[in-house]
Design brief:
Elements (H helix, E strand, L loop, with lengths): L8 E6 L7 E5 L2 E5 H9 L5 E14 L12 E6 L1 E5 L7 E3 L13 E5 L13 E5 L6 E2 L1 H10 L13 E2 L7
Parallel strand pairs: 1-4, 6-9
Antiparallel strand pairs: 2-3, 3-5, 4-5, 7-8, 8-11, 9-10
Length: 172
């Protein structure tokens, strides 16, 4: 996937009544409300890089109704690729073929029904992409408390052991 380069511009589709504080856009990039980004940096959380201002060119609603009048300022950030690795023996992940590369641990996956990280591999990042589950974001308990404390929206946090991704309804 190509790297998104400046100028950073977006067109938003508003699905609910309010704008979200975190919006996943493509790859490992996320849009963050300025409020979220400032709090993240002030509290010293880790795992997001960039924080480049984004110009919102236009907003359209998914459903009929008035648009909120105030569009928050957004920044773009990239979720880091962490050192934590999926524990292949204790996780319920159906890989396209068994990973052979110890570094990336990735050969593509078809389904996930809960996973565990290898003990000792996590280096304390508050948000990251784990080795072996590219495309999925994992967050720390500290990040969960941060989201709850500030009341940030547009985030659904699921414990790793309860996480399910199975678009083709494969046996795991």
């Amino acid at each position: 996937m190509l790297t998104w380069l400046p100028p950073y511009r977006v067109d938003l589709i508003l699905h609910g009544e309010e704008y979200g504080d975190l919006v996943r856009i493509a790859g490992d990039d996320v849009l963050l409300s300025e409020r979220f980004a400032n709090a993240f940096r002030e509290e010293g959380l880790t795992g997001l890089d960039g924080f480049h201002p984004v110009e919102v060119r236009r907003v359209r609603r998914e459903r009929k109704g008035p648009k909120p009048s105030h569009v928050p300022n957004y920044v773009v950030a990239t979720v880091c690729f962490g050192r934590a690795a999926v524990d292949l023996t204790r996780s319920r992940v159906r890989y396209v073929k068994t990973p052979t590369c110890e570094e990336c641990r990735y050969e593509g996956y078809e389904a996930v029904r809960g996973f565990t990280l290898e003990p000792g591999a996590w280096r304390g990042e508050d948000v990251f992409v784990p080795r072996g589950l590219q495309g999925q974001f994992v967050v720390s308990e500290r990040f969960e408390r941060f989201v709850t404390h500030h009341g940030f929206t547009h985030l659904r946090l699921t414990p790793t052991e309860e996480f399910v991704w199975n678009p083709l309804d494969r046996e795991v």
